[in-house]
Amino acid sequence: MKATPLSNCERRFLLRAVEERKRLDGRQCYDYRNVRISFGADYGCCIVELGKTRVLAQVSCELVPPKPNRPTEGILFFNLELSPMAAPGFEPGRQSELLVKLNRLIERCLRNSKCIDTESLCVVAGEKVWQIRLDLHLLNHDGNIIDAASIAGIVALCHFRRPDVSVQGEEVTVYTPEERDPVPLSIHHMPICVSFAFFQQGTYLLVDPSEREERVMDGLLVIAMNKHHEICTIQSSGGIMLVKDQVLRCSKITAVKVAEITELIQKALENDQKVRKEGGKFGFAESIPNQKITTFKMESAAVDTNNVEEQAEEIITKADPPSEVFAKPILHTPGTAQIGEGIENSWGDLEESEREEAAEEEGESEAAAFECQKMETEDTSTMRETKKDEPIVLSDSEEEEVVILEPQELPKKTRTQTNLKQENTSKKAFNKRRRKKRAAH
Amino acid sequence: MAAGRGVAAEACVGQVVLPGDVLLLPTQPDEDGERLRLGASAAPRGRLLCGPGLRRCAAGLLVTKCGLLRHRQAGGGAAAGGAYWVDSQQKRYVPVKGDHVIGIVTAKAGDVFKLDVGGSEQASLSYLAFEGATKRNRPNVQVVGDIIYGQFLVANKDMEPEMVCIDSSGRSSGMGLIGQDGFLFKVSLGLIRKLLAPKCEIIQELSQLYPFELVLGMNGRIWVKAKTVQQTLIIVNILEACEYMTAEQRKQALAKLSGN
């Protein structure tokens, strides 16, 4: 699909707003949007929401032979995908410039900074190492994908647990999660990207640009830093000329932001750890809240229950008493006996009677209709019992007829039973109508 | 649900209906032809209007969108016999003939403008479809990216939609090129319909805050212009938030703003 074009009035308005130091959502120039981190049920799965931008991260691991020139190091694999549900302009399978740029940034941020200790991922030197794979999916694009993706990536890596391994001589044992608790990855530090958008040739600067602001910006500066004030990656795109003190100012702002975000991440990880230990509920179903749309709000309808009791009494007094219980066993053949006469299941009847009533008796209260129904099924069963003079069929299921086998009578029985059923349905329907008329008065 | 049976349409008004539900109209005979209806309601005279979200089928009306079923009583005029429709909520717009929408000019191809209206196809708008436009006197839409308020002349699934900026009598009646300032943003279609309802509370309350100009497009786009950037931003944020706010929350928010 083609992306929606940006109209001139939007562009003009946004630039005017930036000049007046105003942002669309009311933030200040250096303010970040709300960061929300929620974890999935598996280890290594998380969703990070930066305002409305959402990124899903999933970490998985596999035992593979190492690269020939690095026999003692594990392998890291990063992949960011722009899902078509994120924005109308994203198409699956098309390698756009933006995608390449984002992937390179993530790689530089997480791999070149050596935040993950790859030596600890080695199991048997030269033969088996762990390959850690981080998959990032963009679920909604509202600006600043790179920040959200970097936070999601590092949080997922910190959250992930790989299976425990023990090496004894030549033998390597990989324990399942049930045998031994899985082990977290060894992470030295947490690099986080912070983006700066520049307008009017570098005069105005905004932190954490939203999607509209990104469309009208002149250039973008991304700084990846950890909480120890070490810059891991820095990239400037868009061809703007930046002065030295501008870059220094940005790095100072980055230090502040990264400290806040790192604290938030730590808290989120601790919370999740606590919930899992205490056996509480965790996972996306718990942490992602429901949003409600109030455009069509229906008021709760009051049900009139004033004379429900009287109507119910009326119906009960008019109803026939229920059938007696037969306690004597009926002997069919040697070895087969039956106590009581089972009622044929009335699920089929209920559906028909419900529909007829809905079409006809709109005026009656619901309670009355329900009572009618119950009474009817009782009635039909009593009637059927008095009419039947053949061996009764025990039937629990709707589909199958359970036939009690009597060798010489088998064929005759099936035929007569079907006839009886037809006869019964027509009689039932007729009697149902009669009974209904009586109850209505 | 069962394919044959349906529920009476009157019984479902104001309730949630799902696609596939069949609604029986009073004039339809019952499925079970044996019964006579005693004291049946008088068959409605005139045409019954089948609105969005509903389709005619053999038994009555077939629901094609999930939402609340609405009904308007028979009055004079074209929809004598009443109208039924389904109020549903969605963000993706599908062009419908007669809808007034805001389009963004993307290209000029010969004698027509190509507009993006948020649908699957771009709409075309002829140069001559403006009030007072002749071959010599062309409208002042010069730049790609301008926004235009117009209505659909042709909008079906087989052809590219066509728009015009004049109504059937040749007058513009508010349509045409929208001015340079102001801000354009997108909301869901349900909110637009709510705002377009006569005597909408939200718009009345907002107009007591500051004076502003507002254009609502049925494709979910709203154009707002107020005196200052700050005021415009406030109105934009309130309209976007109205989707998820109840009436009391909105009144509180507006009270806070007018107090400032």
- Average pLDDT of chain A: 79
**CATH top level assignment of the largest domain in chain B:** Mainly Beta
* Tally of separate domains of chain B: 3
Spans of at least 5 consecutive residues with low confidence of chain A: 358-389, 409-441
Q: Which spans of chain B of ≥5 residues are poorly predicted at pLDDT below 50?
A: 28-33, 39-44
Model description:
The complex is a heterodimer of chains A (441) and B (260). Chain A is α+β, with helices and mostly antiparallel strands. Helices cover 38% and strands 21% of the residues of chain A. In chain A, strands 1, 2, 3, 4, 5 and 6 form a 6-stranded mixed beta sheet that branches. In chain A, strands 12-11-13-14 form a 4-stranded antiparallel beta sheet. A two-stranded antiparallel ribbon of chain A has the order 7-10. Chain B folds into 3 domains: 7-28 and 47-87, RNA polymerase II/Efflux pump adaptor protein, barrel-sandwich hybrid domain (OB fold (Dihydrolipoamide Acetyltransferase, E2P), Beta Barrel), CATH 2.40.50; 99-177, Nucleic acid-binding proteins (OB fold (Dihydrolipoamide Acetyltransferase, E2P), Beta Barrel), CATH 2.40.50; 183-258, Ribosomal Protein S8, Chain: A, domain 1 (2-Layer Sandwich). A 5-stranded mixed β-barrel of chain B has the order 9-10-11-13-12. In chain B, a hairpin with a 7-residue loop joins strand 12 (147-154) and strand 13. The longest helix of chain B has 13 residues, at 229-241. The radius of gyration of chain B is 22 Å and the shape is globular. Mean pLDDT of chain B is 83; it is low at 28-33 and 39-44. Classes of the chains: A alpha+beta (441), B alpha+beta (260). At the A-B interface, helix 1 and helix 8 of A face strand 1, helix 2 and helix 4 of B. Chain A: Residues 336-441 are annotated as: Disordered.
